[in-house]
Amino acid sequence: MTRTVVVTGGGTGIGRATALRFAAAGDDVYVTGRRPEPLAETVALALKAGATGTVESVLCDSSSAEQLRALVAQLPDTVDVLVNNAGGNTDFDAADGEGLEALAETWLTNFRANVLTAVLTTEALADKLADNGAVVSIGSIAADKGAGSYGAAKAALASWNVYVAGVLGERGITANVVSPGYIGETEFFRDRMTAQRRETLIAATKNGRAGEPDDVAETIFFLASPGGRHLSAQVLNVNGGAQTTR
């Protein structure tokens, strides 16, 4: 049965890989983001790969209530899978500043990008989410490692996920977080990754390699599959063993 899937931040990296994975399965996929060019490229790649379902892009900043309302109006009546991928470490884009005001802005910006986007998008689509559907949000190894405002935001996302899993669980909807470690081939580090840093991150894994966007996409796809129906309120680490939980 064809499902309707919404992937926020679907223009690059993990979001793109996820959109392509669902499109390859014949699902109808809607990718959202703030930049039209990457979104259009995702759609083109899906169609080139032979996607048989609908693959469309919708410009939307997931931290904007107004834009989310416009997004909802453009979606079908039912959404089976929501992937909250929009976010990233906004510290890389922050202007240099000193003092409490600059610190407050740093923390608020990361919170908006990584927590508020997921909260608002999930709430905006709540009435459209199909019973027995799935919500998957993208966390980060930084939530466990400690990484300033970005790590704290991802930790908050994991806490919120437990709450929303309880709310949506009444309708059979699962809610989980997929928490990647170092994933190559993304825009996350804004081309600031040094060779030494990359070697260090790979050395921390048990399998001796960087993660790939497809690694995360396959985990998300599983969580939305029949095999993932009794997994909810969980954080699944996809990091090659660089961070373990007991």
From TrEMBL:
Keywords: Oxidoreductase
Sample GO molecular function, one term: oxidoreductase activity
EC number: 1.1.1.-
InterPro entries xrefs: NAD(P)-bd_dom_sf (IPR036291), SDR_fam (IPR002347)
Domain of life: Bacteria
Record-stated family: Belongs to the short-chain dehydrogenases/reductases (SDR) family.
Protein name per the record: SDR family NAD(P)-dependent oxidoreductase
Provenance organism: Tenggerimyces flavus
Source organism phylogeny: Bacteria, Bacillati, Actinomycetota, Actinomycetes, Propionibacteriales
